[in-house]
Amino acid sequence: MLPAIIAVGVITTVAFLILRVTKGGLPAMYCKAGASLCFIGTAFAAFSYGRERFAYGVLMILGLIFGLLGDIWLDLKYVYDNHKDIYLYSGFISFMCGHVFFISAIAYEFTQYKLWHFALSIAVCIVMALGVCLSEKPMKLKYGKFKPIVILYTFFVTMSAATSIIGMFTHGFSAKFVWLSIGSVAFLLSDLVLSSIYFGENKNTRLNVLINHLLYYFAQFALAGTILLK
User: Fold this and answer.
1) What contacts 3, CB < 8 A, 6 or more positions away?
2) φ, ψ at 174 (rounded to 5°)
3) pLDDT greater than 70 at residue 52
4) How many Cα atoms within 13 Å fall on the side-chain side of residue 61?
5) DSSP letter for each residue of 110-159
6) pTM recorded for the entire structure
């Protein structure tokens, strides 16, 4: 069942990318929602094999569901131009909530979690958030009124990656933390590309859209698959 869901997810993602760069609109949004349902389906299928990690699985699934909601809000931004600001804020908030669940799941599995691990993660997040803030002009970006939520969101998406990487080194490169690190870093990179698409001049290109979504869907399927790993 799991390989079939992943296969359908790959096909749906490819179909979405074709629609996104050619037509856009509601057809692309529906196809994107279908692809996102597949990474949630992957998580549920993995959960059925690894129920001994009940809390971790539930937290990851909740994070992925908020990812699906974020996908829908962000695509509605292109469909209903008059309300694009509301949909963009909704997308940011949904993904931020998703990362709160991801961070909680990672911390739950982080059996050797210590105060200095938390302090190091916070320090990395603050540096990353400041870097995003200070790089606005050098990168020719214009955050405008979205600057506060961009900085806040950067903190949370970086926290997922930082906690995963610290956990990977602490747990001797266990398969779960390796894939958590790969997935969370891919998520962070996809958001950096997305930031340039939304706030940069002439950055909404087909290539950037492809890179953004390839990184994003790889990240979500990788994170969903960690539910299988011990």
Assistant:
1) none
2) -65, 155
3) no
4) 18
5) -TT--HHHHHHHHHHHHHHHHHHHHTTTTTTB--GGGHHHHHHHHHHHHH
6) 0.91
